[in-house]
Design a protein that fits this description.
6-stranded parallel beta sheet, 9 helices
Length: 295
Amino acid sequence: MRILVTGKEGQVDTSLQTLGEKLGLEIIRIGLPEIDLSKPETLEAPIREIRPDAIISSAAYTAVDKAETEAELAQAINGDAPGMLARLAAELDIPILHLSTDYVFAGDKDGTYDETDIPAPVSIYGKTKLSGEDQIRAATDNHVILRTAWVYSPYGNNFVKTMLRLGETRDELNVVADQHGCPTYAPEIARALLTVAQQVVIDRDPTLRGTFHLTGRGETTWAEFAEAIFTGAAARGRTPVRVNPITTSDYPTPAKRPANSRLNGDKLDDTYGLRLDPWRKSLDECLDQLITKTR
């Protein structure tokens, strides 16, 4: 099975490459200079040449604050490029899997968000990601959109690596404590994506298609997440770091963040039998890799 993945340096596409090799799948990652997602028309030639069995759209513009002043660029990468991918997938009669985000929601719901909740993004980033979802749905029914959140891994840039880096030079940090979400480990996302991809390639059942939520089990706040990171780091020999909980208003940013990013993953479990590991378990695995590497 040949699976084309957009992105070469991201957390998820790197995880897909690593896991795909173990599973005996041919993972073909494309990025610059072969394609430029800010110019969606560059996608057509390589995809027609490769003719994969499935497409995984994982690359994205993820600079949430910068998107507020780069709306056109964010729209091209997060909205129009996935739309082009979906149109090509439809022409080739293959499934497309697309990673979306919790940021499509306003974050004002009391409980967890499920797939029937109406998106209402409060940032340019969230609006462009929703545009990508909408363009995919308009282009082909043969799609699986997976919304995830708070992604971290040993690769790329993410909250865990930032906390560990800051903790090397500081003995305390202020971290927002009134935003709630579900940390999600990129290798676990890759496991789910490849499981889903293998099924939808061979099974045309429409119930396997649609929109699903994909996050690590359990919920937390950024401050509690940071505390867990520093507790785990201290257990592995790092100097302890104190976390001071603050409010969102204490740490203003150009883009508004959802106060509630908790996503309900029951539909994915019911449809595919897929349930990601608890985030604390995955965090331990991530810290084992990161701190061993830095010693």
